[in-house]
Structure formats: C-alpha cells, structure tokens
Amino acid sequence: MPAPHRTSLPIADVQIADEFWSPRRETVRARTIPHQERRLREGGQFDALLLKPRSHDDDDRERFPIFWESDVAKWIEAASYVLASEEDPALDAAVDEAIALLAGAQQPDGYLNNYFTAVKPGKRFTDLRDAHELYCAGHLIEAGVAHYEATGKTSLLDIVRRYVDLIWLEFSPGGPCEGGYDGHQEIELALVKAYRATRERRYLELALLLTENRGKAPFYFDAEAERRGDPGYFGGKGAIVRSSQRDREYNQSHAPVREQTAAVGHSVRAMYQYSAMADLALELDDAGLREACERLWDDLVTTKLYITGGIGSDPSIEGFGKPFDLPDHTGYAETCAAIGLMFWAHRMMILTGEAKYVDVLERALYNGVLSGASADGTKYFYGNPLASDGTVERSDWFDCACCPPNLARLLASLEHYVYVADTEGLWVNLYVAGSARFAHGGQRVTVTQESGYPWDGTIAFTITEAQAPLAMTLRLRLPEWATGAPVISVDGTVLPYTTDSGYAILDRTWALGDRVELTLPMAPTLVRADARVTSAAGKVAIQRGPIVHCVEEVDNAAPVPHLVIARNGDLRTEHADGQDSIVAEGLVDRPAEGGLYRSLSPTAEPTAIRTVPYYAWANRGKGTMAVWVREAP
Ligand code: FUB
Ligand code: ZN
Fold first, then answer.
1. Which GO terms describe its molecular function (predicted)?
2. Kindly report the CA angle at 614 between 610 and 617, in degrees rounded to 5?
C-alpha cells in the first residue's frame, strides 16, 4: 500500500481563537515561557553553554547535569512556536541569545554537548546508554527545525546540521560507533523532522539506522561498557555488570524494534521511539514498523493506560508496570510521557487514518497533559497521580526539568494536532475554535470552526474562503466518548452521513458560506474500570465529553476516601468560572468508632459530591483528591 499523503497543517496556517485554549496559550506565552527562561538562567542552563563547569564538588555528575541542553532546546522550541503565530521582539531576541550561546559551545568539528566538552573531553559517544548525548542532539534538532519554520532564520538549523553531519560520520557503517544507538530515544523522531524540513535524505537514513540498531545482538551497551571500562554515568562506582533483561527493557533495547510486542520500560523513551517508528513507517512505507506500532499500541491502550491518558505507573523506572497495574496514589504518569503519547498517537493517525488514535490523544491532552501545569502556568507536576492523600502539590521547578518546557512546547504547538490535510480534503481531529487554511484542488480554502468545546458538543464549520465550487471531503472525528449518535446538519438540514475509521465523511461540492453543524451528545457518565485494575475496583470515575473529573476535598463534606457515589444516581452538570463541575448523588461514609478494623457498621449520610476537571486539581491548596471514587454497592 503506498504511503498516504496526510499531513498536519503548518502552525501559521491554523489559527486558534478558542474560549478554552486561547487563554491557556496566552498564559504559556505571557507567563510560562518567561518563567521558564528565568528558571533556566537562574539554574545555570544558559551559563552552562559557556562551558565552564560548576565547581560543585568532586562528582563529575554534579558539575554539569548531562541533559541541560535539552531544557534550553525545548524552551527555544516552545518560544519558536509562539513566534510562528505572533510578533514578540523581546522573545525573538532571547531566543537569538540562546542560539548564540549554542553557537559558541559548538566545537570546530560540529560537536555540541556541554558535559563531554567541558567535563569529560575525549569521552564523546562512549556512554550512549546513560549520557544522553543523542537525546540532547535530538532536542536541539527539533528546536532548530521549529525555529527555522517559525522565523525563516537558519541560525540554529545550521548549527544542528553541522552536528548531525558529525553524528552521521560516527554512526554510519565503518564509523567508530557503528551499531550504536541512544539510551534515551529522541534523535530518531527529530531526524525525521529535519528530513521533512530540508529533504536531506541522509537524516532519514540515520533515523532508520539508529532505530534498527536498537536491540540487535551483540548488545551494544554491554560492549561499550567493556570498552569504556566503567559502569556508566548512572551505573554507580562498582564493577561493570552485564545488563539484565529489565535493564534492556528500560530503554527498549531488549529486542529489535520490529519484534517488540509490549510497551515496557521507561515510558518517555518508549513514546519517542514509537513515534519515530510511526514516522519511518510512513516515510518508507514500511509494513514491519507499522505492524510493530499497531501491536505496541494495542498492548498499551488495553492494559497500561490511565483513564487520564497518563502512562507509566512504576516510579522506580519512570515507566510501565505490569498489565493492569495502574495504582492511583503512587502512579507516576509523568507529564512528558503523556505528551509523548500525544506525539505517537498523532503520528499513528496520520499513518493509518484511524480516529481511535486521536481519541487517546484527546484523552491525554485534556487530562494527564493539562494537569501538568497550574492554572497560572508557573507550577508543574512531574508525576500526575490519580489520587492524593492531601500532601501532593505542584512545584515551581525541578532539578530534572524535563516536563515544564515539554508542556510549554506542546501547548504552544497545539495547531499541529487540530487538522490534517490530504489530497481529498480536510480531517478535523480536535474541536478547537479558529480556522484552517490549506490548498485544495488548486485553490486556497479556509474552513472556520466555532465551538464551546470541551463543555459544549455542538461545533460549527463554515467555508469562509473558496474561489470556485469546491469538491472536497470533510472528515469529522466522532469521539468514542459521545453518549449518543452524533447529528450533522448542513445549512440547517440534517444530513445522513457515512463513517469510516471513526470519522463522519462529508463528500460534496461546497460553496462559499456553507455551514456544517456537528452535535456530539455529551452527557456526564459514570465510568468503571476493568476488574483487573485493582486500584479502581468497586469505584467509578466521572467523565463528560473528553474531560475526566476528580473529586477534591475542598468542594465536599468530607475527605475524599469517605465519599461514596450512588450507583446510577443523578449526575448534574454545572458550569461556572470557565469550567464544568458535576454534582453526583452520594453518601458520606463516616468511619465508625473502634479503630482501623471494627465490627460496627459505619454511619452514612446523604451528600452531594462535587467534582472538578482533573486537569484543574491542586490549584486551591492541598487536600485529598481522587479520580476513582467508591461506588455504593
Ligand atoms: O532522562 C531525560 C528525561 O528526564 C526523561 O525523559 C524523564 O523521564 C526524566 O527522567
Ligand atoms: Zn518529564
């Protein structure tokens, strides 16, 4: 089957003017990006590019944290997306300053990494498993592409192209790192982006090479440790120990990627790898990579996905636990991992044309991704648990600051995820008000979207630019959460429609001003988990549309563990202060006297249990919280 020609629209061709998203994106521009710039300057990430190691102590690992360039790169990428849609001379100048620092840190042969330049010269590419060199390179490449596409400037793209030329020499056949690959995937998907931006075929070949080297025998990371003579950056000070199966699963090198069947190990690493596999499957029309992606996807969504779209339940590896092991209090669900899941899901939709991937993308976006930042955009969750004993709150920053700039770049590039275009027309994946401008059949077309989503399931589309009668297919995603049959009307007349792979298909000749209205029934619903998810056994969650709700102590008559939702009770939606709250019939199950275990029945009093969207929790002080709440038997 030839590769389809579905693509995301460029950021500049998508306008977002949406009651839900526009204020949040303005917060990212006006508060989050400046806050992160300050934290990166205070934290030393900018200064580190002057290649003067901190005189912290004798431990090399303390003198220069190894992946600091990635924090700066993700910040540049986020800022570039902002610059793609609006002028901001001060931000433009700050980005130029960061790029000048990177230019100064680049070595004459193109190499660019603080740690191995200033702390461990002569040891480049000797600790691929732990030292994050290619991970940092990947983020720099993504930043270079975003900056070029946003501003037309090649200042950063030129830097990263010189670096990639060097990496090619190192890793290509006959090079010193032949057979090697990164311990934290990232460069692979970045190289595909660089290929798409420049059409330099070698970037695609390098992405494929690194992807296919992974997991092949003999095992590269053991061989490099033998050559190096020490256990590596994260390996401690003892003797070299051969990697166990669990070590190999941690960075998904336990098997060649085409043979992998289950999502295992560190979840951000996994998401970046699977994203690159989907990209390569598309670009190279590679059925083996596509089938591997489809298998891994099925495993993830049927056994390892939180209802919030979070993934990675095991904090000890920042990654996947066993199937159905989805604890709520201790679940990790790193913000970066949910973002990575969006990256992968988006690519899978482009590869397959199936809406089921966007259903998961949307679940992650509105829940486990958005929860990663406070309402004011300056405090962050690294892990996003589904329950709190009252001690959990967002932090101003982290020593390992991967999540905050990842969230900034995701929200600043939301345009990428709303529409996809192909030769037949436009696919609408997300319901976000604004417009899409694209070329179709030799003419410029603009489709304007109006909606009160995610609170209101009625969305309108109008053809606001077209020069001639326009033969075009408009595909509208029909979300899995819809609580009844979606209704579509054109210019006020209800229209029968066909569906394919989760999309309603409207294949017609359109005229300027034609208006389509889609109504998605959006009743609040009680959701129950598979019985094997023991943390949710006997409990329910509340969802309305794409929004998963949670119960916070501050809104309720008792700490959350004492609340019980009535089985099949009434659920009433109230909308205030820009968000839904759902009120459920329930009970306060007051603990009976007699200590931890007792024979007395607890006393139960009727109460109204009030929810907030999960993304909005922990904005009003500490208190108990839960997504899964006990259900009356
Ligand atoms: O190792 C780089 C990033 O830091 C990972 O993606 C995150 O999980 C955090 O460990
Ligand atoms: Zn992170």
1. hydrolase activity
2. 80
What does each C-alpha distance from 46 to 68, 73, 101, 442 come to in angstroms? 9, 10, 7, 46
Domain architecture of the chain: domains with CATH: 19-232 (no CATH), 420-519 (2.60.40), 525-631 (no CATH)
Ligand 1 pocket, Cβ-based, cut-off 6 angstroms: 67, 184, 268, 318, 334, 336, 400, 402
According to DSSP, residue 50 is labeled G
Distance, CA of 198 to chain centre: 25
The pLDDT assigned to 62 comes to 61
For residue 64, pLDDT beyond 70? no
- The helix/strand/coil state of 172 is coil
What's the N-to-C CA distance of the chain in angstroms? 52
Closest ligand to residue 183's CA = 1
Residues 426, 466: Cα–Cα separation, whole Å = 14
Which residues, at least 6 apart from 520, have a Cβ–Cβ distance to it below 8 Å?
A: 457, 458, 459, 478, 479, 482, 486, 545
Distance CA(495)–CA(374), nearest Å, equals 42
pLDDT tens readout for residues 210-267: 999 999 999 999 999 999 999 999 888 889 989 999 999 999 999 999 999 999 999 9
Which residues 6+ apart lie within 8 Å of 17 measured at CB? Answer: 433, 434, 435
Q: What is the DSSP letter of 383?
A: B
pTM to 2 decimals? 0.98
Atom 3, ligand 1: which residue's CA is nearest?
402
Q: How far is CA 327 from CA 191, 225, 247, 312, 540, in A?
A: 36, 35, 23, 10, 14
Q: How far is CA 319 from the centre of its chain?
A: 15
State the Cα–Cα distance between residues 344 and 293, nearest whole angstrom.
Answer: 9
Decide: helix, strand or coil at residue 605: strand
Provide CB contacts within 8 A for 568, sequence distance 6+. Answer: 526
| Residue 196 phi, psi (nearest 5) | -65, -30
Question: In one letter, which amino acid is 520?
Answer: L
d(CA 235, CA 106): 28
Q: Could you give phi then psi for residue 254, rounded to 5 degrees?
A: -75, -15
DSSP 3-state percent helix, strand, coil across the chain (nearest 5): 40, 20, 40
Contact 176, 125 (CB under 8 A): yes
Q: Ligand 2 being an ion, which residues bring their Cβ within 5 A of it?
A: 334, 336, 402-403
What's the CA-to-centroid distance between 67 and ligand 1, angstroms?
A: 9
Q: Is 57 a residue whose pLDDT tops 60? A: no
Order of all β-strands in the sheet with 7-8 = 7-8, 419-422, 425-428, 470-477, 503-510, 498-500
